[in-house]
Amino acid sequence: MNILLLHPGAMGSSIGAALTGNGHAVRWVADGRSPETHARAEKAGLTAVASLTAGLAGVDAVVSVCPPDAALEVAASVDAAGFEGLYIDGNAVAPMTAAQLAERFGARYVDGGIIGPPAWRAGATRFYLSGASAETVANWFDDSLVDARVVAGEVNAASALKMCYAAYTKGSSALLLAVRALAEAYDVAYPLQTEWSISQPGLADRAAGAAKGTAPKAWRFEGEMLEIAATFANAELPDGFHRGAAEVYRRMAGLKSVSDADLAAVMEALVGPRR
Ligand SMILES: NC(=O)c1ccc[n+]([C@@H]2O[C@H](COP(=O)([O-])OP(=O)(O)OC[C@H]3O[C@@H](n4cnc5c(N)ncnc54)[C@H](OP(=O)(O)O)[C@@H]3O)[C@@H](O)[C@H]2O)c1
Question: All domains of the chain, ordered by start, with CATH?
């Protein structure tokens, strides 16, 4: 297949590498992208084209793996260019957002949700797919490092699954960091951690791990948390947890460019410098 990948981020480049490894020709649009994206695309063996128009010429499918809050804009730009092939959205978006994409592309839409780290080792990364052509797309990844699985049900089932999964993983990390920040604000971090060591062993380490793990990516988690909040609201379930999580990650967004940001850096981002 000839596939256009928009864009080769940490996850997207690994998806592209799995496809090229299976003999597909994967191109990407260099215009407007950073040196980091250029480096990742090169490492993944993807072919650069200058513009979206050049990228879409003769391709069978477009795979969108970008920040969730850019998913609709990326899809609109592809549609506006007159693309007529399969459109696969692999982003962490609400099922209602996925439904909008399904409406835009009709039966040519394949919904996706990726769970796990960028796919550079076997058995770590699942790419859930739903929609009429989900099985076809899953087959492109046969025996690769991407474990592609079809989710039965509505066309947007893959996005719904991703929202449920990330609601707990990223939502609980945000809750833990907010609780830890609250202890900082009331100057009880030391006694709280002492109590945790007695009655909640491992929680202090988990908070430190959550800080390090989320700090570089928090800038794009705000949008993902808002998609999750909307997913809860649409199901008439409480959406406040994830609105709060979005605020936690919004305050951490500046840590994107801080190398090795740790718990102390996250606490400062959440509650300000220690008094
Ligand atoms: N990374 C993970 O562990 C992981 C796990 C599960 C799911 N995912 C999903 O994968 C998707 C992308 O994640 P990622 O890790 O590849 O992100 P990433 O490393 O931050 O890369 C994002 C890519 O999108 C481009 N981009 C940035 N702003 C954009 C915009 N406004 N419009 C269009 N493209 C833009 C970036 O290009 P420039 O920076 O060069 O501008 C970069 O190439 C997300 O939907 C995420 O939920 C990621």
Answer: 2-155 (3.40.50.720), 161-271 (1.10.1040)
